[in-house]
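Sample entry as discussed:
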Amino acid sequence: MSVKDAVDVDYSRYDFKEPEDYVYKSGKGLTKEKVLEISAMKGEPQWMTELRVRSYETFRKRPLPTWGADLSKIDFDSIHYYIKPTDKQVDSWEALPQAVKDTFERLGVPEAERRFLAGVGAQYESEVVYHNMRKDLEKKGVIFSDMDTAVREYPEIVKKYFGTVVPINDNTFAALNSAVWSGGSFIYVPEGVKVEQPLHAYFRINAANMGQFERTLIIAEPYSDIHYVEGCTAPVYTTDSLHAAVVELIAKKGAHIRYTTIQNWSKDVYNLVTKRAFAYEDARVEWIDGNIGSKVTMKYPSVYLLGRGARADVLSVALAGSGQHIDAGSKVLHLAPDTSSRITSKSVSKDGGRTTYRGQLLVAKGATGVKSSVKCDALILDERSKSDTYPYNMVNESDTVLTHEATVGKIGEDQLFYLMSRGLTEEEALNAVVMGFMEPFVKELPMIYAIELNRLIALEMTGSVG
C-alpha cells in the first residue's frame, strides 16, 4: 500500500462530527454568574468556588499576550465555556450514549485500551464521560480519575497541590482555565510504585465554538514511575474553537514522570496551553510533545529543577501547514546544583505555514555543576513558509556546561533524486525525508502512537509536491 493509500484510509477518523444531544450547553460568553453556575452544577466545595471567582476576576484584568502568535481574532464572547454531554461518567463503553461511543470507537480508543494501556480517561467536550483503570493498580494505591471526581473524593490532596505549580495569575489563559476548568486527569502514584504501562486520556471537541479547559494534576511520590499519554482531536468547522488546558506535574525525590502528547486539533482551534513540572532531588521529568494540528498553538512545557540531581528532558516536534502558526518550545530552570537538562526541538513548515521555537534556559546563582544541551532543527519545505527561533539562555553560575545548536535547512534535490532513483515517487520521497527528520521523536512513542503519528505526518504531507 502506498503512503497516499494509507492516508486516504485513515483521514475520516479525525474529521467527523456527531449530532449534538447534550444534557447542558451554556450560552456563549463568560460572566461571573456562569462561573458560579459551573461550580454549582459540579457540586464543588466552597474553596474551589472561591478559587474560580478569583481566577475569573484575574482573567478579566489580564491582557492577551502580544509577543507570540496573533491572538487578536479570538472572540471570547462567541465561545461556549461549558458543555455537559452526558448525565454521568461510566466505566463501561456499552453504557455510553451511542454518538459518544461511536466517536471514540472511530478514534481507536477502546482498541488502544485493550492492547496497550493501564488506564483510560475519555473527555468529550467539557466532561470526562468514560474512565477505567486496571484493578491491580488500584490495589497498589494508584489513583487515576478525572479532576472533578478528585475534587469530590480526594479533596485534601487536590487542595494541597492545585494551583501550586501553575498559579491562577501566571498568565491570561491559566487564569481563564482556573475559572472555568472542567475534566482533565488526576493521577497520584504512591511511593515506590512503578506503573509499567501508560495511563491514557483522549480529549475530543465535537461542537462548534467550543471552549475546552481540562485540568491535569499528576503527583509522583518518591521513587515512583508513571507514563501518561494524551491525544487531542476536533472536527473542522468554519468558526474558531479554543483549547486552554493547564497541566501541573510534581515529581518528588527519585520519581520519574513521562508526559506524552500527540495534538491533532483541527485548523480552527486556538491551542493555548500551560504545562509545568516541579522536579525535586534526583527526580526526572520528560515532556514528549507533538504538535500537528490547530490554527495557532502556543505551548512551552516547562520544568523547574528544584532539587540536587534533578533532570529534565524535553523533546518536541511541530508541523505547520497552510494557515497554521505553531509557536512552541520549552523552559527549564536550573535552581539546584548538579541538575541536568536536554532540550530537542524539531519543526517542519510547509505551504506557507510558520513554526516558532521559543525557549528559556536559566541557571540560577548557586546552581553549580549544571549540564545542559539545547538543539533546535527546522526544515522549511517551500519559499512561502517561515521558521523562527528565539532562544533565551541565562547563565548566572560559571560552573556550568551548556551547549546550544540550531540548524535551519531545506530538503536538498540530491536527497530527493537518490530516493526517487530507488523507485519512490517525489511525494513518497518527500515524506520519507520528513519522517526521517522526525525519527528522534517518533522512536520515543509507544508503538501504536508511533504508527499513528507517522500516519498523521503523511496526511499533512499529502499534496506538498507541486
About this structure: The mean pLDDT is 81.
